[in-house]
Amino acid sequence: MGLVESGKLPKSLNKLLSISRKYSIWAYQWGLACCAIEMGAAFASPRYDVMRLGVIPFPASPRQADLVVIAGTVTDKLAPAVVRLYEQMPDPKYVISMGSCANCGGPYWDSYSVTKGVDQLIPVDVYVPGCPPRPEALLEGILLLQERIAHEDMADRWKGEPIVVG
Amino acid sequence: MFGLLVAQNIAFYVIAALIVFGALRVVTCKNLVHAALWLVLVLAGVAGQYILLAAEFVAVTQVLVYLGAIVVLFLFGIMLTRAKTGHDLELDNPTPAKVGAGVIGVLLLGVMGYALWDAWRGQELGDIVVQRTAEVSDSLFSTYLLPFEVISVLLLAALIGAIVLARRD
Amino acid sequence: MSEYSEFVRQYLTVAIFAAVGIGLGAGLLGLGRIFRPVRPQEQKYLVYESGVDPVGTGWSQSQIRYYIYALLFVMFDVEAVFLFPWATRLEAYSTFGLIEMLIFVVILALGLLYAWRKKVLRWV
Amino acid sequence: MSQLSSADTTTETPAEEATEVEIDERRQAVLDELTARLGDAVVGSHIRPGDDLWVRVERAAWPEAAQVAKALGYTWFDFLSGIDWLPSPFGRDMDAQVDLQVSGAPVKEPAPLVQGYAGGDTRFQVFARLYSIAAGMGIHFKADLPDDELSIGTWSRTYFGADWHERETAEMFGFHFEGHPHLVKLYLPADFQGFPLRKDFPLLARRVRPWPGIVDVEPMPGGDESEGEGE
Amino acid sequence: MTATSDREQIAALAARANDNRVNLDFETEGMTLNMGPQHPATHGTLRIVARLDGEQVISAEPVPGYMHRGYEKLVEVRSYPQINTLVNRIDWLGSFANEVPFILAAEKLMGVEAPPRAQWIRTILFEMSRIANISLFLGDYGLQLGAMTAGFYAFRDREHVLNQIEAATGGRFHPNFDRIGGLKDDLPKGWITDSHRAMDKLLAFCDELDDLLVGNEIFQSRTRGIGVIPRDIALSYGLSGANLRASGVDWDLRRDSCPPGLVYDQADWKVWTHPDGDCFGRTWVRLQETREAALIVKQLLDTIPSGPVMAKVPRIIKVPEGEAYVETENPLGAMGYYIISKGDLVPFRVKIRSASFNNISVVPWVARGAYVPDLISILGSLYFILGDIDR
Amino acid sequence: MTLLLAAFDPPYWVSTLIKVLVISIVVPTTALILGMVFLFKVMSWMQSRLGPQEAGPRGTLQLLADGVKFLQKEDIAPFGADRFIFRTAPLVVLMSTLLLYVALPASAHLVVSDLDVGVFYVLAVSSLSVLGVLMAGWASANKYSLMGGLRAAGQLIAYELPMVLAVLGVVIQAGTLSLNGIVFAQANGSIFGWDAIGNPYILTQFVGFFIFLAAVQAELTQPPFDMPVAESEIVSGYQVEYTGFRFLIFFLAEFATAFVFAGIASVLFLGGWAVPWLDTASDWYYVLGPVVLFAKVMIVSFIIFWVRFTYPRFREDQLQSFAWKILIPLALANIVVTSVLKVVL
Amino acid sequence: MPKVPGLVKGLGVTFGEMVKTLKEGPQTTRYPHEREEPAPRARGVISLYEENCTACMLCARECPDWCIFIEAHKYLAPPRREGGKPRQKNALDRFDIDFSLCMYCGICVEVCPFEALFWSPEHEYSEVRIADLLHDKSRLGQWMQTVPDFESYEAGSEAKVKKVPR
Amino acid sequence: MLVNQFLFLGAVLFCIGVYGVLARRNAVLVLMSIELVLNAVNINLVAFGAMWHATDPANLSGQVFALFVIAVAAAEVGVGLALVLMIYRNRQSIDLDEVDLLKG
Ligand code: SF4
Ligand code: SF4
Ligand code: SF4
């Protein structure tokens, strides 16, 4: 039973913990479709270099990840894998939904095999619009997420169900 | 000096307890990998005893060869034959055999214990002098030269034998 | 202080550090307990296997090559053990020690050669 | 137009290309060779000069057609798929049916079922394309599948690449390929119901969601354009 | 919550999860390795189920479909301009290249031809998307084989090309720039000079990669003689593009049967082949192809004719009845669209022949007997894009 | 100041306590420094980018943030894992790393435990991490883990041997196993009578140095020898199931080990904490020693990481044959040549 | 000259790159401290010039994703010229674009006959609630300020440069 | 310290090893038990070695013998496990009794 869960942690310490989470976001490397390449550009292209912001795209296993960017189309066949991936990540964990496909089904909104939005499967923290979003748009999404992390109340987050947004 | 001796004795008994406990787990434990890891404890303890006996080189050799190599060999052997985690009930002989083995073990211990007690009663180890590597080397290259060369042949034979056995033909 | 107690102390330090190594890690992990959440989720404790259900359980009884390499390693490791004391005293032994050791090394190198010849060094 | 393609093996030029009445001799030669080898199995054909060749064969001769073509040097496998010639019951233009649904107008008469080049008699056809790198030409093969027996021989023995194409076609149209080694679903989840590429497979999202363009369907009051500010 | 209750809860959950297992069709005894759909080696969501003997592959069966979006159905309910933007997303790395065969097929049915300036720009953009596509392959293949820096270089220099594509079309990825009868817009000022510069950077990147990766002895030992696909097998599986050329088949649709509407005959270039058919051959051919593409672009940039970029076509596009198939040499290989039109706003049926689908179907054949690490180099060197397989 | 340090001779327990404190600070610090400087900065530079920038001034606190973050991560042991072993495995690895630091001399007296069998001890202790890795791989009950664990173990032991043999060349030349002894032998040695720079063994034992570096690279499971954690093959090997702090221990232990191996390499081949023109008995070494050693360590680690960021990885069998068919025969030959020369000269 | 082994060459490449980065600075845009300029044509977000829109519905009809929602009512506008008859006009009540669904194809901009829609290269509008990605009339109007002027064309072009209404 | 301390420890370890050899059925475990026995012997050897060394500094027989034992143990484990693996490969089991039965 953690102190944090019970909300007994002193404010300043809480702040420190939040800041550390803010600046250390290990992002799982998993791309789905076209957006994944733009995500790859944000993560790996020297022009964007997401590492500057403290987002480290090292982990190849969800067990070490804090953030998963759902970048691309989620199909019904894939949906169980997405859910599993999310659940296998250790808390606290964050999800960015990148691109129209992940947000809402996007160009394939009428397809018979595409899930209409990843938020039907897992809770999403930040939605990045675009098809595909520019890498900088993803960076902006990440900044937004960092802002959220810095101000979030961990006791809240870790007590009940995950915060479901939107 | 006395203080040192007391400390040594404490160290000895602590390590000895660890060794005995570990050894018992090795022979009773129900999981092969656990057994191998308990064996690690025993072997490390034995290395500790060597240190107490000032046999530095043997102690480090124990770590290098036993912990770094032989246990790994054991673990490989286990994982290659049985990769599943979990318990395995087929490790032991049936209970009568086990009881028999226990009896034999205890009897043997009794006999040996008595003999040792009888022969070395009260014998002190004396002032232990640190045995440096160089001295080991000198001994090896004078008195035990022949066995030393024989060892190489033995290792070669073992190597060839093991390769012949393990090779998939 | 006698050389012996000096010696034992050196290794006591080693033992202490071994304990510290374990203790440090365990302590930090214990510290983490305060800050960590525990939030069971349905699939959190399934082993990771690329996002699908684990297929099969065991794996690879046939990885015999690992064993052969380990075996070679053990033999040569033992050899190396004997080489170390010799190396420290080579100056004293001079040619005699050199020849003795050459014999030793050559005999074992034969083993390597044998393994090589028998193609066990190949990944089959 | 498809009426123009005949049931025999003579070549007819489509009406709109009648201006360039050239005969493509190379393709005609290939067609003759195919006819010679396959005999009566060739039931329809079509040549667009300088461009492409379509051959329709009997269902029974489908695997044989592949072998013959391969022997003729058409070694490169391009693709294989199916066609459902049923006019879509949901309207043909993207908005037609939805308009109707909302305005409550009666459903249009279904258009007649018309097959394309090289003709056809049935609703379903398989078609495939092979290519000869040496000749720089391709052939489209087609074959009819009767509604009551949607099965045809496999090509995967002759062209390894057909393996996956046939699996895809099978799950999309519900065809059966006799002799295919592993005819299971390729793309869709194992519990997926229906055959998506059949024309009567509805895209539900389109059915349930109102089309935003529908909101204002009546034409703007006349004479409006002259006053539109954008002009 | 106490520790025990945690544990109980966990145990209960795990038991439930075990009950809920859904996907057991590949459960076999002992030695099945499953890679994907969440595996770093599979460029997204391909799944490979490999039965192993030790580290040797007995059989490897790709399981595609995790990215299946139902293209062939969707295009039946979309008008031609809408399809044009949708097909961008098939091979998402060389998006513009997807549009071209579709537009050409529609143009063939409509009997229109784009003005020369449009043809030139089309060809240039086509080659640029080839570069954008293949340069990423080169970097990513390095990444697959553990040389992480190559990937960064690829992303770095790819940006130059993307910049050019974006400056012209407005989209880094999905240009939606091609139109039946021409192009959406003309080039912006200064584009030609910038493109020259970008191509120079690209050529430098190729040299750099040659030194860093392709010339590296470790790389060669990982790829030479691995995953050999002989000529006949390659043809029978319908492989295309660099995969086919690396097997010694000297065939390039750009040169051998370039459909009207592209102007490859206006540039002086070379088709590269490699006799070995192994992973190295495929990589090498692609590297050369990238160079060649940059050179084509540079040549064409200098000769762009002036004039309009759009032919006269009706505002509402209804394609006349008929069937047409056009195939072009896309970055991944031969890509074709078979359009059946009934004269409506929407096509009646479109069969999309995508290169990766065939390219990857050879995996079961070529992976047999390979080692697991080789499986990675084989998969990587066959180079597929998930969208191009699954559509 | 330096003299003060020299005169400082506390009782055993006090000094041990100090040592424990110092090492518990030094180990994470070195790991952080290496991780920061090389993994984040040098790697970024080699890839023409910047690396972490936002966390702390110019991103220097990145790894610290990571550490605190990992402290807050949930601790998951997968169902079916052998919990106890799963949990202790990282500790074993950490212990092995810490034990390596024990023998590393930062100057003649600044050493935790100046063992008489120094090098031999180092080699023995470093082989302990194999146990941790195998435990981790096996206990995770995960296929990738087991495969990674086996690969790692196979690789660690295969390269243990070249390392041992490479060290032997130095031992033959120095005639001692003590690490400080080796430093002295280099500082006071001479090359054919020319003793201006002593006799750093890299000049005579360059073959050994090369083999040692290759072996270190392999022991650290870094490219080109990173198959045990090759993400495109087996995701991340034996670390697949590790979360939070346990993973961090693996992660940091890797860098700490890199540091200490670089340290040992510089002791064995580059003259350790000594600088040629300063007498080894000088009190200045209380301050200078650590600095000099640190500088040399950074140079060696730069080479290690440089290679890491440049090369693709070997295949498992190529790795083994590289060890057995090239490195080990080479090392044996090196030993023979060295000993012959030693006896003849 | 003997061939330099590839292993050495590779080391040279990375080292050279490091030196270059240190000397010339990296190729990174330090977002969020500085921003890169996307091309003027970049399709970042759609902006609406409300005055021009006649609620003709063309964009909504042509949109492949059905993500434009328009509601309008008719009213009589005062005559343009003195004494003319009042004109019947459509007034926009609602003009929403759902950017979580939009596929950024540009069809709407292209088909709009009245030059009411424009592309802006802006891309920073990630949201934590997906509902906020539905941009209404006023938000779309605000984007208008970020629309750049059309660029002039490359030599040899016959296209006319259009103007952005302000 | 008394010599007997070490000797007794050796004796206990030895007997546990013997028990293991007799009671265990799994071949790998039997090999492990043998390791216990060998280590017991080694403790004794080193203890005696230390004792003699105290009186006669040139005498290091105990240690040298311990080294030899370690070397022999390595060889023994290598061959032993190779045997086990071979049996396992042929019989998919490393149950020693089964092997006995087949032999008899
Ligand atoms: S949102 Fe667009 S770019 Fe992203 S995956 Fe979907 S179609 Fe591709
Ligand atoms: S850009 Fe395309 S998808 Fe987006 S609103 Fe316009 S037409 Fe619709
Ligand atoms: S097409 Fe243009 S004028 Fe018509 S409703 Fe859309 S934005 Fe308004």
Structure classification of chain F:
mainly alpha
Spans of at least 5 consecutive residues with low confidence of chain D: 1-20, 96-100, 217-231
- What gap, in angstroms, lies between the N and C termini of chain F? 43 Å
Tell me the strand order in the biggest sheet of chain D: 1-2-5-4-3
CATH topology of chain D: Beta Polymerase, domain 2
Ions, cofactors and other ligands present here are: iron/sulfur cluster
Q: What is the assigned CATH homologous superfamily of chain D? A: NADH:ubiquinone oxidoreductase Nqo5 subunit
Q: Could you give the count of β-strands of chain D?
A: 7
Give the amount of beta strand of chain D, in percent: 15-25%
Mean pLDDT of chain D: 72
Describe the sheet with the most strands of chain D.
Answer: 5 strands, mixed
SSE string of chain F, helix = H, strand = E? Answer: HHHHHHHHHHHHH
CATH class of chain D: Alpha Beta
Please count the beta strands of chain F (DSSP E, at least 2 residues each): 0
Radius of gyration of chain F: 20 Å
Please indicate the count of domains of chain F.
1
Question: Biggest sheet of chain F, open or closed, and with what strands and sense?
Answer: none
By helix and strand content of chain D, what is the structural category? alpha/beta
Name of the CATH architecture of chain D: 2-Layer Sandwich
- Oligomeric form: heterooctamer
Question: Please, could you describe this protein's structure?
Answer:
Chain A has 166 residues and is α/β, with parallel strands linked by helices. Chain A is 40% helix and 11% strand. Chain A is built from seven helices and five strands. Chain A has a five-stranded parallel sheet. Chain A starts with a helix and ends in a 7-residue tail after the last helix. In chain A, 75% of the residues are buried. Chain B has 169 residues and is mainly α. Chain B is built from six helices and no strands. In chain B, α1 packs antiparallel against α2 and α2 runs antiparallel to α3. About 3% of the residues of chain B have low confidence. About 5% of the residues of chain C have low confidence. The longest helix of chain H has 31 residues. Chain H is 86% helix and 0% strand. Chain H is elongated, with a radius of gyration of 17 Å. In chain H, α1 packs antiparallel against α2 and α2 runs antiparallel to α3. The interface between A and G is medium-sized, with 34 and 33 residues. The complex binds iron/sulfur cluster (3 copies). The site of one iron/sulfur cluster has 13 residues of chain G, from α3. The site of one iron/sulfur cluster (SF4) has 12 residues of chain A, from α3 and α5.
